[in-house]
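Section 3.1: Structural characterization of target chains.
Under the original work plan, the team committed to producing a structural model for every single-chain target entering the pipeline before any wet-lab resources were allocated. The record below documents one such target. The sequence was received from the expression subgroup and is listed exactly as submitted; it comprises 379 residues.
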Amino acid sequence: MHVALTGATGFLGLRLLRRLLDAHRSVTVLAHAGSGDALHRIVRFFELTGSAPEFVAGLAERVRVVEIDLALPRLGLPEREYQELADGVGALWHSAGSINLEGDLPELRRVNVEGTRHVLELAAAGRLRPRVHHVSTAFVAGARREGVAYEDELDGGPGFENAYERSKYEAELLVHAWSREHGRPVLVLRPGVLVTDLPPHPDLPPHPLQVIERILRDACGSCGPGARDRPRVRMVGHPHGRLNLLQVEHAADVMVRLAGRPASGGVDTFHVVHDRDVPVATVVDVLERLVPLRVELVSGRPAAPSPLEAMLDFYPGMTAYLAHRRRFDDTRVRAQLGPGAASAPVDADYLWAGLAPRSWTVSGPPGPAATAPPPVRRS
């Protein structure tokens, strides 16, 4: 069975590609046209993450790159090339999309909704009737900040924290409609916030906490490094808030194993999440060790924000999650995979390892992270 994958050069997509190459002789990567040399970025990822030299050397023969445009009918391909692609695919993984939490809805719909529509059309056009594996997000649960979000729920009634969540919700609605219309099975995978203990590197895509750290660092500008010089930043959040953070490598492994399970015939939806949430206070502590700021969680937006707080308020799509206390149910995943669904802990040391600068070598992952500085003393 030949496999095609969108989003293969993304943070999750690269790990999915690694697992798919473990299971299949070759993979067709559907890469965004004009985005650069996808094969080079893939090779660089495997070099940096310690893959065997012979494995890296064989990637050019095992990975076929087809440049597409998700937003265009037929993915922007000539009709004959499009049909040849459709007829050669036995399984279709859709991991590409925009994760811009500050994006406007029309643009996010163009990529996340219409892109999904065009991927589904590709699956419908293929003579092999490929099974579709659609990577969504646990955050289609929307603006409900407490309680439990279940895998069989898809309800936009509570609204959404941002346009990204809405666009992914609308994409899932398309998947359900397509499955009913064509009588075809679809696997929907809803990950939480994915993280890694690999530190930042210019040749690797960042994970969400790296993006937050950069925003804080840019906003801080010339803040002094000493604790006494740290300006206070008030951010809306709950003192007992929690975030579902999951190792991206574990998420990719779980997804590929779920794809190997028998399909029900309809839409099978799974929360690919950690069974233990991380307290927001832990995340704040790690960020304070990295950036010379003192973060104070408050219940509402400050009436008179400081210039620094006003700058950070341009990113409400990010800060909304500091107030979340809900839990994502993953009963179906645990029923399918048993103990293999469990993940190693994500704690302050793990998060620090994925954010603190380290030296890299091409021959393998970097060495141990520098010792984290002590927590910031709060007055």
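The mean pLDDT is 89.
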